[in-house]
Design a protein that fits this description.
By secondary structure, this protein is α/β, with parallel strands linked by helices. The protein has seven helices and nine strands, in the order βαβββαββαβαβααβα. β5 (71-77) and β6 form a beta hairpin. It binds adenosine-5'-triphosphate.
């Protein structure tokens, strides 16, 4: 059996178009890619399946995992812990799929401390002004949240300029042209 494929990190400012690209990619290649299953200490909701929607852990189990260094990142929201493990990413590869990590710059820095050895791809808006338009056009955030995303965006773009931060940068100007470049890059690295 061939070795599991390297994961692919997709990063870039909120509103740059990561979800738009990934939705199209998953629709075009339904069996090729996957996301890792996150871990949480919250209780399962009706219909949620352990190991599919989340790995549901007790607080003790979760904290033991943190102490062992299993987690790439973890955080607490509303009294519950959430996080992604290195093994969770590797399991996607073990099932014959390529794991996609859709994460921000802080996540990228943490992934770089692991042995996952992914490809790093940054999706970027043509300008901050255009990013602002798209975030407003999406209509999913309140004004204060949009401002927060715009100031974080500058940090993301600055980080992407650092030597070796990313293997590839795709500027999402015209959607069709940018998606074609995105797909071509993914096809290149996954057939290597
Ligand atoms: N090339 C493009 N031209 C115009 N609008 C675009 C383009 N690409 C994406 N959009 C629109 O911009 C908005 C933001 O895109 P999207 O939600 O994919 O960003 P994202 O990077 O996934 O953001 P987040 O990190 O917040 O999830 C969406 O409304 C999307 O339809």
């Amino acid at each position: 059996m061939s070795a599991p494929s390297r994961p692919i990190v997709i990063s870039g400012p909120s509103g740059a178009g990561k979800s738009t690209f990934l939705k199209r990619l998953f629709a075009e290649y339904p069996d090729k890619f996957g996301f890792s299953v996150s871990n949480t200490t919250r209780n399962p909701r009706a219909g949620e399946v352990d190991g599919v929607d989340y790995n549901f852990l007790t607080r003790e189990e979760f904290l033991a995992g943190v102490a062992r260094g299993d987690f790439i990142e973890h955080a607490e929201f509303s009294g519950n812990m959430y996080g992604t493990t290195v093994q969770g990413v590797k399991s996607v590869g073990d099932k014959g799929r390529i794991c996609i990590l859709d994460i921000d710059m802080q996540g990228v820095k943490l992934v770089k401390k692991t042995d996952l050895n992914p490809y790093y791809l940054s999706v970027q808006p043509p300008s901050i002004e255009e990013l602002e338009k798209r975030l407003r056009g999406r209509g999913t955030e309140k004004e204060a949240d949009i401002q927060g995303r715009l100031s974080a965006a500058q940090g993301e773009l600055d980080y992407a300029k650092e030597e070796g931060a990313y293997d590839e940068i795709i500027v999402n100007d015209d959607l069709e042209a940018a998606y074609a470049k995105f797909k071509a890059y993914i096809n290149k690295i996954t057939s290597a």
